[in-house]
Amino acid sequence: MSSISIRKKESHYHLILSQIFQEEFQHSDVIGLTITEVRLSNDGSHLKVYLSFEQREKKGLIAVDNAKAFIRRELAHRINARRVPELHFFIDEVAEYANKIENILQQIKEKENK
Hints:
By secondary structure, the protein is of the alpha+beta class. It has one domain (about 1-110): GMP Synthetase, Chain A, domain 3 (2-Layer Sandwich). About 55% of the residues lie in helices and about 20% in strands. It contains 4 helices and 3 strands. Strands 1-2-3 form a 3-stranded mixed beta sheet, sandwiched between helices. The chain is globular, with a radius of gyration of 17 Å. The termini are far apart. It is found in: Cytoplasm. Monomer. Binds 30S ribosomal subunits, but not 50S ribosomal subunits or 70S ribosomes. It holds the Pfam family RBFA. Keywords: Cytoplasm, Ribosome biogenesis. One of its GO terms (molecular function) is ribosomal small subunit binding.
């Protein structure tokens, strides 16, 4: 599969998964879920989905992982493809590090203003 084709499919999967999480998936442990990145394997058989949560990251990831079959089934209903990739969910550590850096910079700014 060409890289352009892969990027188009990634973008399409990102959009559809966002819709599924917004419209169909509701769980008390999933607070402030954002899909930060979607990566499709070259053969199209695996889709890595990177997530960030406002709270309860580990519980949120477990809840999403437990609903993987439901999410994949919903994805299959919404796309026109012969096969649906296997879903793999991860916490996006880049977003977590960015938040930590932002907090540190905010603390420095507050100290300078005192």
